[in-house]
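Give me C-alpha coordinates for this 266-residue protein.
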Amino acid sequence: KPAPAKPLRSYSTRTEDDETQNASRKKEKVILPKRILASLPAHENIYTVPNILTFSRLVAAPIIGYLILHEQNVAALSLFIYAGATDLADGWIARKWNLQTVVGTVIDPMADKTLMTVLTISLAMQGAMPCMRARFFPYDQLADWHVTVPLALLILGRDILLSLAAVYYRYISLPPPKTLARYWDFSLPSAEVHPTGISKVNTALQLGLIGWTMGTMAVGGDLGWWGPDGALKAMWYLVGTTTVWSGASYIYTKDAVKILTSRKAR
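Here you go.
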Protein backbone atom coordinates (compact mmCIF):
# COMPACT_ATOMS: atom_id res chain seq x y z
CA LYS A 1 0.00 0.00 0.00
CA PRO A 2 1.22 3.52 -0.74
CA ALA A 3 2.35 5.50 2.26
CA PRO A 4 -0.20 8.01 3.58
CA ALA A 5 0.31 11.50 2.27
CA LYS A 6 1.87 13.93 4.68
CA PRO A 7 -0.12 17.09 5.46
CA LEU A 8 1.03 20.08 3.53
CA ARG A 9 2.89 22.71 5.50
CA SER A 10 2.18 26.38 4.88
CA TYR A 11 5.29 28.46 4.41
CA SER A 12 5.28 32.19 5.01
CA THR A 13 6.71 34.35 2.27
CA ARG A 14 7.96 36.90 4.82
CA THR A 15 11.56 36.76 5.87
CA GLU A 16 12.89 37.47 9.31
CA ASP A 17 13.97 40.93 8.14
CA ASP A 18 10.41 41.74 7.05
CA GLU A 19 9.03 40.68 10.41
CA THR A 20 11.59 42.83 12.20
CA GLN A 21 10.70 45.86 10.07
CA ASN A 22 6.97 45.38 10.66
CA ALA A 23 7.52 45.09 14.40
CA SER A 24 9.51 48.32 14.44
CA ARG A 25 6.79 50.04 12.42
CA LYS A 26 4.17 48.99 14.96
CA LYS A 27 6.29 50.47 17.72
CA GLU A 28 6.67 53.70 15.79
CA LYS A 29 2.91 53.95 15.37
CA VAL A 30 2.54 53.95 19.14
CA ILE A 31 5.54 56.08 20.07
CA LEU A 32 5.31 58.79 17.40
CA PRO A 33 1.86 60.16 18.31
CA LYS A 34 2.86 60.38 21.98
CA ARG A 35 5.96 62.28 21.03
CA ILE A 36 3.96 64.75 18.96
CA LEU A 37 1.26 65.22 21.60
CA ALA A 38 3.90 65.94 24.20
CA SER A 39 5.26 68.85 22.20
CA LEU A 40 2.03 70.39 20.86
CA PRO A 41 -1.09 71.48 22.79
CA ALA A 42 -4.31 69.70 21.92
CA HIS A 43 -7.22 71.44 20.22
CA GLU A 44 -10.33 71.97 22.28
CA ASN A 45 -13.93 72.34 21.23
CA ILE A 46 -14.63 76.07 21.24
CA TYR A 47 -18.14 75.83 19.74
CA THR A 48 -20.00 75.54 23.02
CA VAL A 49 -23.16 77.33 24.18
CA PRO A 50 -21.30 79.52 26.74
CA ASN A 51 -18.75 80.61 24.12
CA ILE A 52 -21.52 81.39 21.62
CA LEU A 53 -23.31 83.54 24.21
CA THR A 54 -20.04 85.32 25.01
CA PHE A 55 -19.38 85.95 21.31
CA SER A 56 -22.89 87.37 20.87
CA ARG A 57 -22.12 89.84 23.66
CA LEU A 58 -18.95 90.79 21.82
CA VAL A 59 -20.94 91.47 18.64
CA ALA A 60 -23.64 93.41 20.51
CA ALA A 61 -21.16 95.98 21.90
CA PRO A 62 -20.70 98.12 18.74
CA ILE A 63 -24.43 97.93 17.99
CA ILE A 64 -25.27 99.36 21.42
CA GLY A 65 -22.70 102.11 20.90
CA TYR A 66 -24.26 102.98 17.55
CA LEU A 67 -27.74 103.18 19.11
CA ILE A 68 -26.47 105.47 21.89
CA LEU A 69 -24.82 107.87 19.46
CA HIS A 70 -28.07 108.04 17.45
CA GLU A 71 -30.12 108.58 20.62
CA GLN A 72 -32.04 105.31 20.34
CA ASN A 73 -31.87 105.02 24.12
CA VAL A 74 -34.63 102.47 24.71
CA ALA A 75 -33.28 100.07 22.08
CA ALA A 76 -29.75 100.53 23.41
CA LEU A 77 -30.89 99.80 26.98
CA SER A 78 -32.78 96.67 25.85
CA LEU A 79 -29.73 95.29 24.03
CA PHE A 80 -27.55 96.16 27.02
CA ILE A 81 -29.86 94.13 29.29
CA TYR A 82 -29.43 91.19 26.90
CA ALA A 83 -25.64 91.56 27.09
CA GLY A 84 -25.78 91.57 30.88
CA ALA A 85 -28.00 88.47 30.89
CA THR A 86 -25.52 86.57 28.67
CA ASP A 87 -22.70 87.58 31.01
CA LEU A 88 -24.50 85.80 33.84
CA ALA A 89 -25.78 82.88 31.78
CA ASP A 90 -22.57 81.80 30.05
CA GLY A 91 -20.66 81.20 33.27
CA TRP A 92 -23.57 79.39 34.92
CA ILE A 93 -24.09 77.09 31.92
CA ALA A 94 -20.37 76.35 31.69
CA ARG A 95 -20.21 75.33 35.35
CA LYS A 96 -23.53 73.47 35.35
CA TRP A 97 -22.78 71.24 32.35
CA ASN A 98 -18.98 71.21 32.60
CA LEU A 99 -18.44 73.22 29.41
CA GLN A 100 -15.50 75.30 30.60
CA THR A 101 -12.87 75.98 27.96
CA VAL A 102 -9.56 77.79 28.04
CA VAL A 103 -10.68 80.09 25.24
CA GLY A 104 -13.73 80.94 27.35
CA THR A 105 -11.47 82.32 30.08
CA VAL A 106 -10.01 84.65 27.44
CA ILE A 107 -12.98 85.83 25.37
CA ASP A 108 -15.28 86.34 28.37
CA PRO A 109 -13.21 89.19 29.89
CA MET A 110 -12.48 90.35 26.33
CA ALA A 111 -16.21 90.72 25.67
CA ASP A 112 -16.67 92.60 28.97
CA LYS A 113 -13.80 94.97 28.15
CA THR A 114 -15.09 95.57 24.62
CA LEU A 115 -18.57 96.31 25.93
CA MET A 116 -17.25 98.68 28.58
CA THR A 117 -14.91 100.43 26.15
CA VAL A 118 -17.56 101.02 23.49
CA LEU A 119 -20.23 102.15 25.94
CA THR A 120 -17.87 104.40 27.90
CA ILE A 121 -16.78 106.21 24.75
CA SER A 122 -20.36 106.46 23.44
CA LEU A 123 -21.77 107.81 26.71
CA ALA A 124 -18.89 110.24 27.11
CA MET A 125 -19.44 111.60 23.60
CA GLN A 126 -23.10 112.11 24.51
CA GLY A 127 -22.09 113.97 27.68
CA ALA A 128 -23.72 111.36 29.92
CA MET A 129 -20.65 110.78 32.09
CA PRO A 130 -18.64 113.17 34.29
CA CYS A 131 -16.49 115.19 31.94
CA MET A 132 -14.03 118.04 31.75
CA ARG A 133 -14.44 119.20 28.19
CA ALA A 134 -11.34 119.83 26.11
CA ARG A 135 -10.94 120.00 22.37
CA PHE A 136 -9.71 116.83 20.74
CA PHE A 137 -8.71 118.77 17.62
CA PRO A 138 -7.45 122.36 17.40
CA TYR A 139 -9.29 123.00 14.17
CA ASP A 140 -12.36 125.22 14.20
CA GLN A 141 -14.35 122.98 11.87
CA LEU A 142 -14.03 120.15 14.43
CA ALA A 143 -14.72 122.30 17.48
CA ASP A 144 -18.05 120.57 18.16
CA TRP A 145 -16.41 117.14 18.56
CA HIS A 146 -14.63 117.20 21.89
CA VAL A 147 -14.52 115.05 24.99
CA THR A 148 -12.04 114.28 27.73
CA VAL A 149 -13.52 112.27 30.57
CA PRO A 150 -11.48 111.50 33.73
CA LEU A 151 -13.57 108.45 34.70
CA ALA A 152 -13.62 107.23 31.12
CA LEU A 153 -9.85 107.61 30.90
CA LEU A 154 -9.44 105.42 33.99
CA ILE A 155 -11.70 102.72 32.55
CA LEU A 156 -10.19 102.84 29.07
CA GLY A 157 -6.61 103.05 30.32
CA ARG A 158 -7.05 99.97 32.50
CA ASP A 159 -8.65 97.96 29.71
CA ILE A 160 -5.99 98.96 27.16
CA LEU A 161 -3.17 97.93 29.49
CA LEU A 162 -4.83 94.58 30.25
CA SER A 163 -5.41 93.97 26.53
CA LEU A 164 -1.75 94.63 25.75
CA ALA A 165 -0.77 92.26 28.54
CA ALA A 166 -3.05 89.58 27.07
CA VAL A 167 -1.40 89.97 23.65
CA TYR A 168 2.04 89.61 25.25
CA TYR A 169 1.16 86.52 27.30
CA ARG A 170 -0.47 84.86 24.30
CA TYR A 171 2.71 85.34 22.28
CA ILE A 172 5.20 84.09 24.87
CA SER A 173 3.03 81.10 25.84
CA LEU A 174 2.33 79.87 22.29
CA PRO A 175 4.55 76.86 21.48
CA PRO A 176 6.62 77.03 18.28
CA PRO A 177 6.11 77.53 15.45
CA LYS A 178 4.81 81.02 16.32
CA THR A 179 2.81 81.77 13.19
CA LEU A 180 0.02 84.29 12.76
CA ALA A 181 -2.49 81.53 12.00
CA ARG A 182 -1.58 79.62 15.16
CA TYR A 183 -1.65 82.84 17.21
CA TRP A 184 -5.29 83.51 16.28
CA ASP A 185 -6.30 79.85 16.52
CA PHE A 186 -8.12 79.98 19.86
CA SER A 187 -8.59 76.22 19.86
CA LEU A 188 -4.88 76.06 20.73
CA PRO A 189 -4.86 76.93 24.44
CA SER A 190 -1.61 78.36 25.75
CA ALA A 191 -2.49 80.66 28.67
CA GLU A 192 -5.36 80.82 31.14
CA VAL A 193 -6.74 84.00 32.70
CA HIS A 194 -8.30 84.00 36.17
CA PRO A 195 -10.04 87.28 37.02
CA THR A 196 -9.26 88.55 40.51
CA GLY A 197 -11.97 89.05 43.11
CA ILE A 198 -11.86 92.84 42.98
CA SER A 199 -11.89 92.67 39.17
CA LYS A 200 -15.21 90.81 39.26
CA VAL A 201 -16.62 93.40 41.69
CA ASN A 202 -15.34 96.22 39.48
CA THR A 203 -16.92 94.71 36.36
CA ALA A 204 -20.27 94.42 38.13
CA LEU A 205 -20.06 98.04 39.35
CA GLN A 206 -19.07 99.31 35.91
CA LEU A 207 -21.95 97.48 34.27
CA GLY A 208 -24.25 98.80 36.98
CA LEU A 209 -23.05 102.36 36.34
CA ILE A 210 -23.48 102.00 32.58
CA GLY A 211 -26.97 100.54 33.02
CA TRP A 212 -27.90 103.27 35.49
CA THR A 213 -26.70 105.97 33.13
CA MET A 214 -28.48 104.45 30.13
CA GLY A 215 -31.64 104.10 32.22
CA THR A 216 -31.61 107.81 33.06
CA MET A 217 -31.20 108.60 29.37
CA ALA A 218 -34.08 106.30 28.40
CA VAL A 219 -36.42 107.66 31.08
CA GLY A 220 -35.43 111.30 30.70
CA GLY A 221 -36.48 114.14 32.95
CA ASP A 222 -35.23 115.12 36.41
CA LEU A 223 -34.48 112.05 38.56
CA GLY A 224 -33.79 114.05 41.71
CA TRP A 225 -31.58 112.24 44.22
CA TRP A 226 -31.02 109.35 41.78
CA GLY A 227 -29.60 111.68 39.13
CA PRO A 228 -26.10 113.08 38.50
CA ASP A 229 -26.32 115.35 41.53
CA GLY A 230 -27.00 112.55 44.02
CA ALA A 231 -26.42 108.81 44.12
CA LEU A 232 -25.16 108.60 40.54
CA LYS A 233 -22.34 110.98 41.38
CA ALA A 234 -21.30 108.82 44.33
CA MET A 235 -21.31 105.83 41.98
CA TRP A 236 -18.80 107.64 39.73
CA TYR A 237 -16.29 107.92 42.57
CA LEU A 238 -16.84 104.32 43.66
CA VAL A 239 -16.27 102.96 40.15
CA GLY A 240 -13.16 105.11 39.74
CA THR A 241 -11.69 103.65 42.93
CA THR A 242 -12.42 100.01 42.06
CA THR A 243 -11.09 100.53 38.52
CA VAL A 244 -7.64 101.53 39.81
CA TRP A 245 -7.71 98.82 42.47
CA SER A 246 -8.67 96.05 40.04
CA GLY A 247 -6.01 97.07 37.54
CA ALA A 248 -3.33 96.88 40.23
CA SER A 249 -4.61 93.49 41.42
CA TYR A 250 -3.41 91.82 38.21
CA ILE A 251 0.12 92.93 39.04
CA TYR A 252 0.39 91.58 42.58
CA THR A 253 -1.83 88.48 42.14
CA LYS A 254 0.32 85.49 41.15
CA ASP A 255 -2.43 83.24 39.79
CA ALA A 256 -4.14 85.84 37.60
CA VAL A 257 -2.45 84.49 34.45
CA LYS A 258 -1.20 80.90 34.08
CA ILE A 259 0.90 79.71 31.16
CA LEU A 260 -0.20 76.18 30.30
CA THR A 261 2.12 73.28 29.66
CA SER A 262 1.27 70.79 26.93
CA ARG A 263 -0.07 68.32 29.52
CA LYS A 264 -2.35 70.94 31.13
CA ALA A 265 -3.52 72.08 27.70
CA ARG A 266 -4.61 68.54 26.86
